[in-house]
């Protein structure tokens, strides 16, 4: 069985346990009507799924979650709802042997999608066939002003880190900060950190400070590995003027750096350094705390 | 100012043309849900792609925008009568409509009907009535401003000819001259409170007094013209002052629209009564419509001020 069919079966089984029998019966009936020769049946099924499935969260147990990760690293249906699982199931059934035809259908689906359909489509990106054909689409999704759609591309989604080129990836991070999204929910972010992004974030920080505004402490995570001597003033400023959480964040960033000044500053705060070394203090904790208090 | 716990539905408003100040004022006046029918934009479109993007905004961006103000946004999909006169384009729009009529917030086919009452308008009006039958949706009918009485009768004749249950059809933009026939024939009669060209609110009070509240619906049709997005709550306030019973006011400014369009199966009171409190926080300072405002979190009914 190919990977797509396995993911489709996985979603089907999970919906089967959690949805009404007639909803599942409807979903199964759609299989026969889905053909790439006439996509209209597919478009209709994708839209009308909202009449059969609601937006209750999928109930994903430990075993389901582990299986999801085996099917595709990073796949986390615990953040999905029933309706989007059903829509993703339909997407996975759509024939993809002819990539041009498949892409044309996908484009039409994106172009005519409503709010929740867009969320489902973008969240499904990493699971779809021909993922490299969808890079521009993913970048387009990051330009949206609809926060829930932005989140579908950017958060709990393995596609950006897997496929986006560096400029698009950096836009994702910058816009996520601009929209005040929780950065710890972006997958593969440490792996994709880069000096160009770090430089843009430092400049953004100076701009915010000049305007008398705050920045998210999560930002320092993407600066840490690229800290340079010229940043020591910035680090000092956070250590002196920052909140306790900001101080913890800048020291976590110092801990990611091999710059001797940064290492030295870290040693000046032995209690925090111990918390970092024991794992008690980490970026996820900073992210969670910052998003529970920041607003 | 006394506390006002009244809720209103404006079942016909073109919010695409309105500002965020309007949305805020609407929510403060107690409007909890709106229906935005597809219409023209003040000048005719020349490309089918312009329709596609407009329809997409009615099911996407505008729905999101309304939600930021705690207003549930629904829409009606259709090719309006004015633009039906460009037949080459109309054909392409008809091919596009099936992609949208199944969307979650589409509660009717509309606004459709007659403008000049040409043959082309007639053709696409009928084709869309058939579409409404296929997808089992109510119909919102725009009655013409010119030759209104005849156009209204004719709209109802054609609905009957196509075997559409009058209970599924809202005839809009009525006046004193058309209301009796619409009610007699079993259709819903909507009134647009819109200065100068349509209804004034004082006349509306008299209509409710004369005909009773059954099957009457008040809307604003506020758009890019000189119009008022608070027409519905303002008319309700006037009715209250002029001693129309509360129950009647509730029917014509809330319940009747819900009953008529609720027949779509896609519009339920729970959609707004059980919705999360308004949460604009995620957009604060973000690249959103709330660019430089303080967010208003957690509207409760006690926050609603009297219009």
From TrEMBL, chain A:
<dbReference type="InterPro" id="IPR047715">
    <property type="entry name" value="EboA_dom"/>
</dbReference>
<protein>
    <recommendedName>
        <fullName>EboA domain-containing protein</fullName>
    </recommendedName>
</protein>
UniProtKB/TrEMBL annotation, chain B:
<keyword id="KW-0378">Hydrolase</keyword>
<keyword id="KW-0479">Metal-binding</keyword>
<dbReference type="InterPro" id="IPR032466">
    <property type="entry name" value="Metal_Hydrolase"/>
</dbReference>
<protein>
    <recommendedName>
        <fullName>TatD DNase family protein</fullName>
    </recommendedName>
</protein>
<dbReference type="InterPro" id="IPR001130">
    <property type="entry name" value="TatD-like"/>
</dbReference>
<dbReference type="GO" id="GO:0046872">
    <property type="term" value="F:metal ion binding"/>
</dbReference>
<dbReference type="GO" id="GO:0016788">
    <property type="term" value="F:hydrolase activity, acting on ester bonds"/>
</dbReference>
<dbReference type="InterPro" id="IPR012022">
    <property type="entry name" value="UCP005295"/>
</dbReference>
<comment type="similarity">
    <text>Belongs to the metallo-dependent hydrolases superfamily.</text>
</comment>
<dbReference type="Pfam" id="PF01026">
    <property type="entry name" value="TatD_DNase"/>
</dbReference>
